[in-house]
Amino acid sequence: MYALILTPARAEQVRKAVKEHGEVVFDQAGTMDSLGIRNALQSAARVAADALILDIDAGPGPDLVAAVQGYRISRPTVRVILLAPGREPGDATVASLVGLGVYDVISGPFRDDWGDLVAQALNRVPATYAQAARWHIMTGLTGEEQVKEKVVIEQRPVGVVTIAVAGAASGLGCTHTALAISAFLARQGHNVALVEDSQEPVMKDYLKIIKADAGRVNKARRIKRFDVFPFAKTEVDKFIEGDGNNFIFDELLPELSAGRYEYIVRDLGVADKKRTREAFRSNLAVLVASAARWRWGDLLKIEPLASFRLALVAPAEREVREIRRIPELKVYVMPHHPDPLCMPDEELAELLRPVLPQAKKKSSFWPWKRLWSNCD
């Protein structure tokens, strides 16, 4: 399935090419201003597409980059194919988009057959940073070419990382685990936001009781060096009264983009079908479950279970061994800790390993233990 944001000059050629490869689920053509390109990408983010084909001339360069960053927050795994007619390495807009993980860059003269160029790209596997690296340079005032943020891209996940936390059943500690993950990432010096999309929201009252400070951006409150966006029924009545497919996360895209967060943690509540689908929009999906045999039925309802990293809270050793015999399951043990904001770091670091910066994965755990002790 494909989403298209194109200029009129190339729209018809690209549409014909894409329809031979799959279904077009979002299509907008025009040369837009700042508000227009932002709204277009926000609308595209609400559609479950496999790839977004984006014309670089559809909006002003800096505004296009900011809008793509917001799209990346919502759809971090979608392949973005950038049409860049007439652009050459050193172009600031293309370099910025490559920095957001846009590696499929199609360039060429304006008069080329862009339908054919897109068809060739769709027949290839998605590009990697190695193929896009020549675009990730900017010409400085002296005329010398400089690689932009190359070290950062090689050592840490590109763009905003989203982590979804869901529970196999109610009361197992989904919110507790989401808070623990957020606090852990904040202790490592990252800019973190926690978004509450649970069926049984509790954060609004909790933040009021502890008198949390104002967050970095509108609608956010701040605790332990990270921002929390509590569920607020009055702002998303569609979630309550509509078809149930709207989430706070989608409503908050402008604020999440403005906050420039490195990690966004989503507390999804109990993993029903739509929340499981939301979890797989993220870079990492965590399922909080019980290891007790009489709760194994909760796991049978989750499909596909193997796509989650399974977090078992304070399980018995024997039960952990039995669950780990199930093929393809990725099982992690979370210790019981009454305060999620001070949970030990070792287990959380292992659970989050795929989305942690490489440089920090090599660090000793001793400083993390010292940080944890300061929570007491």
From TrEMBL:
InterPro entries documented for this protein: P-loop_NTPase
Protein name per its UniProtKB record: Uncharacterized protein
